[in-house]
Amino acid sequence: IALGEPTNKYYYEQKGDFDTITKILKEKFDGASCVSKEDVNLDSIFLTWSRIKDMFVENGYATEFKEGDYIMSPPLYHNIYKGALGEKVGHEIFKLLEIPLEELDSEEHELFDYKVSDKPIYVDFKYWKETTLFDTEDYHNKVVEKAKGCKNIKTVVIANVRDTGHNVQSEVTKGGIKIIELSLICNGKLSHESGVKILNLKNE
Description:
- With 204 residues, this protein is of the alpha+beta class.
- The chain has six helices and 13 strands.
- The longest helix is centred in the middle third of the chain and has 23 residues.
- It starts with a strand and ends with a helix.
């Protein structure tokens, strides 16, 4: 979208899941959400993992929001950019922990992000804010339903890449599928509990 002059951030108001954007301004206002580098917390990721910033640079990924005539719309920012960010950062963290991930075939591509090599374990990376709201039971049901489209699956790891300051750790078995939810980064560093769980995937 264009806001009439170069910018690298803006504030907006919405109704529903980006069904209707009711207001967009460069200045902050009450109840506003924001599109910016600060909102997506890029610097926290790079400070935690300098290797991740190196990976961004090597692959030509943006490490900052530069001022320009155009900037991402709210749906593009949340649904596409944050999804890609979680996927790339999460993949690099698993790589640093020496957990090899492989791409999914065309039939499974839209179900999860990756599969642990030679294991019946699928991984879905998220970039959820602390304020992200959803019904846990309903979400687990959707995970189990998606798992039905995978050829060989016993475990799904839902890994939130964003540092929310809360170390979420949960594990539940539903419909024969073990669902592990964890926070990768907490308070500026890799969650110890998450690191242990990820390393234990080698033994499953």
